[in-house]
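Project standup — Tuesday

K.O.: blocked on the structure for the chain from last sprint. Re-posting the sequence here as requested.
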Amino acid sequence: MYAICKEKQSTMNTNHAHHERRSSRRSRLLNSLDEIRAVREEIASLLESLEYSNRDIHAVQLSLEEALVNAFQHGNRLDPEKQVHISYRVTSGQAWFRVEDEGDGFAVDDVPNPTLPENLERPCGRGVFLMRSYLDLVEFNPAGNVVRLCKFRSQDN
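H.V.: unblocked you, prediction finished:
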């Protein structure tokens, strides 16, 4: 998956002096909405410093919040003894995220499509749908307890 993003980045027109600036971080999060907000804000600040568009920043923030909330609520079932692991790497051309929970996972193919008429009133499936709509790559591991996300910087920055 990294090779796919790397290949696309090399074809992008990036005329920024900070092309190689990047930031990586790995942290363990407790089951707290405050910690989700803090990570979202930290990543938004990093994206702003690399001059990502407001649209890209919104896409990443919304998708990351969905992934983290799903990991806490559905993966870890709000068990305070379990943690959610997040790692990320952001460059001037792309942003990568990996979110892992300590739950049993799920079958992503079994998540109902929330846009089908029979599912419009159902509350499930919207988070995965939003992530896939806003990001360039969303990939779950076979167990369903790890999601990898990638957002390419928009060309209209």
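K.O.: great, moving the ticket to review. The beta strands are 22-29, 84-91, 94-100, 137-140, 146-152. The two ends are 25 Å apart (CA to CA).
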